[in-house]
């Protein structure tokens, strides 16, 4: 007949191991309910996002004439120089807004109910105009121009 002889040290080691596993299991289970506010794992930095929408103002003059204009909302955004950001342009009012950003080769079209995303990076400080080609002046139901301030 064989007996398994456990020394006092072995028993303590087994108890400590069991406790570590238990604490670890509790930690893993409760961790799912927590929301980390700071990432320490060096994950890829996400690109800052700026959202603009196309809006319409309309009214009627005293003599019954319908007047309307289109705008970007917000009309001004601030972007850090040399940092890549994405502009998310969502079409709410107006069927289509072909646009460009002055001083860059960025251009595209915003359509109603769709989001147009362009990535931009400005290496020079200054104020850049986001211009809708269709509604660039009062005569064309604008000015649909947003200002991108880079510094
Ligand atoms: Cu427009």
What does this structure look like?
- The longest helix is centred in the N-terminal third of the chain and has 24 residues.
- The strands form 2 sheets. This protein has a 5-stranded mixed β-sheet with strand order 3-9-8-5-6, with no helix packed on it.
- It contains 1 helix and 9 strands, in the order H-E-E-E-E-E-E-E-E-E.
- The chain has a domain of 102 residues: Cupredoxins -  blue copper proteins (Immunoglobulin-like, Sandwich), CATH 2.60.40.
- It is α+β, with helices and mostly antiparallel strands.
- It binds copper (II) ion.
- Copper (II) ion binds next to loops.
- The site of copper (II) ion has 7 residues, from loops.
Largest sheet: 5 strands, mixed
DSSP helix fraction:
10-25%
Class by SSE composition: alpha+beta
Classify the beta-strand content into a percent band: 35-45%
The CATH topology of the domain at 49-150 comes to Immunoglobulin-like
Give the termini separation: 84 Å
- What's the alpha carbon Rg, rounded to whole Å? 29 Å
CATH superfamily of the domain at 49-150: Cupredoxins -  blue copper proteins
List bound small molecules: copper (II) ion
Low-pLDDT ranges: none
Number of strands: 9
Q: Average pLDDT, to the nearest integer?
A: 88
The run of helices and strands is HEEEEEEEEE
Instruction: Specify the number of helices.
Output: 1
* Strand order in the largest sheet: 3-9-8-5-6
In one word, what is the shape? Answer: elongated
CATH architecture of the domain at 49-150: Sandwich
CATH class of the domain at 49-150: Mainly Beta
């Amino acid at each position: 007949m064989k007996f398994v002889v456990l020394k006092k040290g072995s028993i303590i080691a087994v108890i400590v191991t069991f406790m570590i596993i238990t604490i670890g299991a509790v930690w893993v289970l409760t961790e799912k309910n927590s929301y980390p506010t700071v990432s320490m794992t060096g994950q890829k930095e996400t690109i800052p996002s700026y959202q603009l929408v196309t809006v319409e103002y309309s009214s009627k003059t005293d003599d019954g004439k319908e007047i309307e204009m289109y705008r970007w909302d917000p009309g001004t955004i601030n972007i850090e120089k040399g940092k890549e950001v994405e502009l998310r342009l969502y079409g709410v009012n107006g069927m289509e807004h072909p646009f460009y950003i002055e001083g860059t080769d960025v251009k595209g079209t915003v359509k109603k109910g769709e989001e147009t995303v362009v990535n931009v990076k400005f290496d020079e400080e200054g104020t850049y105009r986001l211009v809708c080609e269709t509604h660039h002046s009062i005569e064309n139901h604008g000015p649909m121009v947003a200002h991108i301030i880079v510094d």
